[in-house]
Amino acid sequence: MAEVRMRVNGTARSLDLDPRVSLLDALREHLGLTGTKKGCDQGACGACTVLADGERVNSCLALAVQYSGREITTIEGISAGDRPHPLQTAFVGHDGFQCGYCTSGQICSAIGMLAEHRAGAPSAVTGHLAATGVPLSDAEIRERMSGNLCRCGAYNGIVGAIQEVAATEAAR
Amino acid sequence: MTETPVRDRPARERTGRSVGRPIDRVDGPAKTTGTARFSAEYPYPDIAYAALVHATITRGRITGIGAEEALAVPGVLAVITHTNAPPMKPPPPVSVLNLSSLASGSKVNYLNTDEVHWSGQPVAVVVAETQEAAAQAAGLVRVTYQESPATVDFAGEQGNATPQKSNPLQQGEGHKGDAEAALAAAPVSVDLRYTTPPHHHNAMEPHATTAAWDGDRLTVHDGTQNIGWLRTALAQRFGVPAEGVRVIAPFVGGAFGGKTMVWAGTVLTVLAARVTGRAVRMTLTREGVYRTVGGRTPSAQRVALGAGADGRLTALIHTSVTQVGRVGGSPEQVTSQSRHLYDAAAILVQQRIVELDMLSNTVMRAPGESIGTFALEAAVDELACELGMDPIELRMRNEPERNPIDGKRFSHRMLREAYALGAERFGWADRTAPPGSMRDGRWLVGMGVASAYHPSWEMAANVTVRMSADGTVLVRCGFHEMGMGGATAQGQIAADALGVPFEAVRVEYGDSDLPTGPGAGGSAQTASVAASLTKACEKLRRSLLALARRSAGSPLRGARPGEVEARDGGLHRAGHPGSGESYAAILTRAGRPFAEAAVGSDTRAGTVAGQVRFMSKFLMDRRRWMKAACGAQFCEVRVDQDTGEVRVSRWVGAFDVGRVINAKTAASQLRGGIVMGIGMALSEETLVDPRNGRIMNPSLAEYHVPVHADIPPIDVCYLDEPDPTMPLGLVGIGEVGITGAAAAVANAVHHATGRRVRDLPITLDKLL
Ligand code: FES
Ligand code: FES
């Protein structure tokens, strides 16, 4: 057993875990935070995406013990109190899901992706790796979100929702 | 370019304020905040975890099981095998008198037999205090086998195919005239072979079950598409009364047919809970889903078309070979659409089947039509090229007035209008016909088109509707939510039927304690529930009027049902504003907390009556009408001239799906089907080792479903013309979107490159 202390959605948590427990299972089975989903448990679908110190990670590929001392944010922790995160609202408006199983991962991934873009990180479709201020085109979003599968095929709505939020952010 | 204008029609009157509107899903907040609970997410104190051990041989018997190492893993509670499992009843034989007998994924009585029927069959289940211990111990169970010869090679077995039996609900065979002779005599013809590989549903939520026994009472959380079947099946297998079995499944994380049948994981979780006396949860690994849940059969198809120089079809032949497992499976109705799409003078459709020592195949989104339309619609495109005719024009010349094979009437068919609408939105007129004639720099551009077709169905559904004295409405029906937005659509229907705001309606679903709903399959759920729901609302209105008209103080005193309409939250004399009263006032004056109406009943007699009603309506309908959704799929691809990489760059899908209840969720469902069709066209393929039938790519890393980058904006439009024979005029939309999609891609690839790829998926190696 290994002691793991981390902040989850702003609250300090301490867990005594089998060192084999993934971050995903720590959240779902040990902390009851089942909003984060398990789609493949092998890093291939993105359903388990959470934010670790603001960066998106596939929590199924992470061992909880590696994340001792880190700040983890899950879908349950992204709203500001009663006010949903703008992406949550936009996903509903754009119908960016059907069954909803990939949705937590899509939203957390989008939050991380928007931060990466703001920080100037290029993607495979960015013309110049060193370019700055690359506009967040649909193609950029699609490329950057391609680690998050949606078998229901809600991709158009997801891109629309992210565009809407990105545009509002840019306007601020 | 064809000249078929969209039929001029007046803006249709909306009967109500909710139906048709693009209302946000009612479960949107739950799904976007992570509070929607799926079946592996119900907390139970003292829960234990289970993991499966899969057979590593294809066929034979288990000769020994060594569980010592597994049992020595700390936290392991039990290793359940055929040597120590309590007996279960075998799955019942299939009978139309008991439709739930269709529910068993396979005939195998898992862990009650030493026989192995496919590579990957579960042979043991390990139960432990933690997931980690269960998974580790499952890897330590040592099984020895005696192998028997097995037949697993689909390609090699096709010579031994036998005629496929017609399924009681759907005919697959048929002929008119002598199609082979007509083909031989045709001035222009094509005679082509197509293959499609096995596919897997790959719902994002892997199959998971949480099960807890309390004496002979059982509670099961399981992502099922058929709560009623699952409940009956579990009661039967475990020999307990169905009344004591509760299935709770409000949210299903995608299914697409893969969660219709009762598969091993569900049964063995319930067994593990029985054996250990603990609540047990089992989430299948992604590999476990491939090993224990069937997928779509591969197919080999022949499509031969003969035509005169004018493009009129003189012969249409479509034959198929598909597989089922020796231990079960759903014969795929591959040629279904070929009985209905073209007015050929002579027609022959025929289906054959091979039985293999593999896991049963099962239904997957538009079983039959999804792969059948690929071959048929690609062949029609080839014929158009032979004739030098626009492929839409060729289709329009052969658009039937009546069902071609038997002359039955179409209840509704607007394929012409769908093509006209789609062609305009897509810009089909800008296409230059010769293959390879459209380029954009290094990209070869191609435009392809194909017809979509899916029969529409209606099943039995029990529903109750309650009006409370506060004016709110509660609809109860145990239907399923896998992403279709059923609660939203049914809420819209009830709101209009009762004349209340959408917000006043709450819909309960996904629980066997509710009136039994239809299964989610055949694109039939919305129509089936809608039929009963509108009847129940009608009954409710009548009983509320009965309360009012007896009452001296009511403005509705003496009013007859025909004079009254439901609006503004109450009943009013038609054409007289302010001449009625609210439901709340009616109920309050009558001193009633609520009024309720029911359609269908869950008593034993009620269930039998429901099934009889369903079958007789079904048979009567089928005698009179051909009912279906159809549409026109338009695809633009760009193919890299050097690498053969295919990108889908534009899509328009124009559909005739009857009345649309929710413009937002309907468009999403149609898009979802198209996305899956794009996957089928370009990347999806389950690879099977032809030596032992073992699936070689059981993971999302190696089975390639479309990702964000693969999917362009998909323009979905529909004609929104009600089908006069369907409840509220609505026709199912869950499956028609995938049909025709792969053909549209293949036809566009040909237009871009001049290459015909007749074996899916169209990977770049086939274009180089
Ligand atoms: S569950 Fe982590 S990537 Fe699929
Ligand atoms: S909404 Fe079902 S997988 Fe994305």
From TrEMBL, chain A:
One of the Pfam families matching this protein, by short name: Fer2
Gene3D superfamilies reported for this sequence: 3.10.20.30, [2Fe-2S]-binding domain (1.10.150.120)
Protein name: (2Fe-2S)-binding protein
Assigned keywords, A-Z: Iron, Metal-binding, Oxidoreductase
Domain (2Fe-2S ferredoxin-type) ranges: 2-78
PROSITE patterns: 2FE2S_FER_1, 2FE2S_FER_2
Organism of this sequence: Sphaerisporangium corydalis
Automatic annotation (TrEMBL), chain B:
Entry keyword set: Molybdenum, Oxidoreductase
Database matches in SMART domains: Ald_Xan_dh_C
Boundaries of every Aldehyde oxidase/xanthine dehydrogenase a/b hammerhead domain copy: 33-149
Polar residues bias: start-end ranges: 159-170
Region (Disordered): 1-37, 154-180, 556-578
Highest taxon in the source lineage: Bacteria
Pfam families tied to this protein: Ald_Xan_dh_C, MoCoBD_1, MoCoBD_2
InterPro entries, A to Z: Ald_Oxase/Xan_DH_a/b, Ald_Oxase/Xan_DH_a/b_sf, Ald_Oxase/xanthine_DH-like, AldOxase/xan_DH_MoCoBD1, AldOxase/xan_DH_MoCoBD2, AldOxase/xan_DH_Mopterin-bd_sf
Bias (Basic and acidic residues): 1-28, 560-571
Name the UniProt record assigns to this protein: Xanthine dehydrogenase family protein molybdopterin-binding subunit
Organism of origin: Sphaerisporangium corydalis
